[in-house]
Amino acid sequence: MITIPIKHPITQYIQENSQSCVMALGFFDGVHLGHQKIIRTAKKIAKDKGLKLAAMTFAQHPSSVIPKGPTITKFITPLSEKAKVFEQLGVDILYVVDFTKELAKVPHQQFVDQYIYGLNSKHVVAGFDYKYGFKGKGDMSQLPIDSKGRFGVTTVSKLEQHEQKVSSTLLRALISTGRVEEIYQYLGKSYEMRGEVKGKGRTCTFSFDPSYYMPIPGHYEVTVKSNLFQAKGMCEVKSIHHPGELTITFFEDTLFKDFENATLQWNNFIADFEMDALHAQGDLRELEMSM
């Protein structure tokens, strides 16, 4: 997979050198089961048409630039990890667009002309709620109009699990209330972080990208994995604004060396009865209303 960073305004060089593709559109934080449905739909179309499979995402979440609603600056999958997942799913080209105030002002038709048709898209696949262009005036009902017949459009319908819409918002809600054990049914795997392990015996320090979305403070059962090592242990999250480092105590004396490429898997929240009303499994918004 090749990754192509794009800054606005997009250059003619990038457009002229883009390969014919089927383009999957979305921010794709978490690359959950709904996102995977979009990528696999695009992959099938690309295979049928003999085209490259491309995905477009943004380097920044739009909420960090557009002052509307909650601002998202922490991610379920930071960009470097998101790219790895895309590659595993068979994406050939990853376009990473800088989302700036200038880009946010681009009208929907211009966005299509420059960033979709301009990148040689022959077919576009996105979720039913995808929006684009100034004030999100472009959506999946507008996209076939803006395409002007230059490319095909496929809209992927809402994916539900247990009567819940599978979404990044849902995943963040589960993580922020400590319900990490529920992540698997929407993500297709446990919530994980990539990082570095240093220590010996039963205790280690796990260092990771501080832009990861952290679970609410409390104690958690976790699994640390690497090519030559796997062990269960416990860690305490003291703050969601953690500087990218956790101390893990393993249940057995098993760590024999440092590992530069390791995965921290969040298994379960361990009840901390001293938290009283601020129990991690509770919805903090409801707790605040009742206190």
Automatic annotation (TrEMBL):
Q: What is its EC number?
A: 2.7.7.2
**Catalytic activity from the UniProt record:** FMN + ATP + H(+) = FAD + diphosphate
Gene Ontology molecular-function annotations: ATP binding; FMN adenylyltransferase activity; riboflavin kinase activity
Q: Alphabetically, which GO biological process terms does the record hold? A: FAD biosynthetic process; FMN biosynthetic process; riboflavin biosynthetic process
Q: Matching CDD domains, A to Z?
A: FAD_synthetase_N
Pathway listed: Cofactor biosynthesis; FAD biosynthesis; FAD from FMN: step 1/1
The membrane-spanning stretches of this chain are: none
- Entries under InterPro entries matching the protein: Cyt_trans-like (IPR004821), FAD_synthase (IPR015864), Riboflavin_kinase (IPR023468), Rossmann-like_a/b/a_fold (IPR014729)
Q: What class of enzyme is it?
A: transferase
Q: Which UniProt keywords apply?
A: ATP-binding, FAD, Flavoprotein, FMN, Kinase, Nucleotide-binding, Nucleotidyltransferase, Transferase
Q: Where is the FAD synthetase domain?
A: 15-169
Q: Does the keyword Disulfide bond apply?
A: no
Looking up PANTHER family in the UniProt record yields: RIBOFLAVIN KINASE, RIBOFLAVIN KINASE/FMN ADENYLYLTRANSFERASE
Q: Which family does it belong to?
A: Belongs to the RibF family.
Protein name, UniProt field: FAD synthase
State the organism named in the record.
Halobacillus alkaliphilus
The uppermost taxa in this organism's lineage are: Bacteria, Bacillati, Bacillota, Bacilli, Bacillales
